[in-house]
Amino acid sequence: MSKKNRLETVVWLRETEEDRARLAMADAQRHVNAATDALSAAKARAGADERRSASAAHWSLVESAHIRALQEARQAEHAVKTASDGLSKSRAHYLGAHTRTEALRRAIESRRAEEVRAEAQAERKNMDEIAMLLRAVTA
Asked: How many whole angstroms separate alpha carbon 66 and alpha carbon 46?
């Protein structure tokens, strides 16, 4: 396997890793958005005051529901924090993968430019040799 093919394979692998990291980051962002929406709904339920003039049994039932809504709001806050932490981790993983991929791309571009310079230099050398042969023949 030539150097060029090996490097292209490595770049392909790095790009695949970068794409997977990007998809994981998008998935984590969706989880954060869903958790945030759930938190907003839980806070709205917890903030609603359903107590009216009614029997004590009704008030007891409403109070139990309100306590449960507050617990759900705390759980939703915890879910948002967990999802945000996951997003931070996936973002860091993506940035690392992107940085590694870009470094490899720059290295390959540098090698390609080096190969082009070497080919141009070899071509100039061949043209100089041909010019010297032509000069020797005409002299």
From this structure: 6
**Tokens representing 45?**
């339920």
Report the 10 Å Cβ neighbour count for 132.
Answer: 10
For the record, the structure tokens of 113 come out as 């430019």
The DSSP symbol for 52 reads -
What does the alpha-carbon distance between residue 29 and residue 31 come to, in Å, rounded to a whole number? 5
Domain 3-109 has CATH 1.10.150: no
pTM over 0.90: no
Highest mean pLDDT among 3-12, 65-74, 86-95, 101-110: 86-95
DSSP string, 110-137: HHHHHHHHHHHHHHHHHHHHHHHHHHHH
